[in-house]
Write a structure and sequence with these properties.
Blueprint lengths: L6 H5 L5 H19 L4 H15 L6 H17 L4 H57 L1
Length: about 140
């Protein structure tokens, strides 16, 4: 095949909405390019680019999972080559680690806030007890 595309992999349905979106973008771009009179090769290359550009951002855990699924399907259809796949998956790994680090920092901050609040509450109760004891001693 001149485009290096597995049309079976492009047509194969998926339950992942992000992958399905990327595949639809691929098909739309390919069909537009062919309708414009471009060769199979050019249409395929432009469709590959559109597929890659349609992939989700690496913002949340679910986006990262979708991104990895898109990379996998992109490899199957020829939209993503092995060297770029490795780079994209490394980026997904880094994003995942950053999200995990942020979640840990938030959890630690919340734990520290809870500890500080408890310490402040204990200090207030101690001050009240001292004030009550002082008042009782003065009466």
């Amino acid at each position: 095949m001149a485009t290096g595309v597995s049309f079976k992999a492009v047509k194969q349905p998926t339950r992942n909405e992000a992958v399905q979106f990327c595949l639809e973008i691929w098909r739309d771009e390919y069909n537009q390019q062919r309708a414009a009179g471009n060769t199979e090769y050019t249409a395929g290359q432009q469709a590959h680019k559109a597929f890659r550009e349609a992939m989700p951002d690496l913002i949340a855990d679910s986006d990262i999972r979708d991104f990895i699924a898109c990379v996998s399907r992109g490899i199957l259809i020829g939209a993503i080559d092995a060297p770029n796949a490795a780079k994209l998956l490394a980026a997904a790994r880094i994003a995942s680690q950053a999200i995990l680090a942020e979640q840990k920092a938030i959890a630690l901050s919340e734990a520290a806030d809870q500890k500080a609040a408890k310490m402040a509450e204990e200090a207030v109760f101690k001050a009240l007890e001292n004030a009550a004891a002082t008042a009782a001693a003065l009466s």
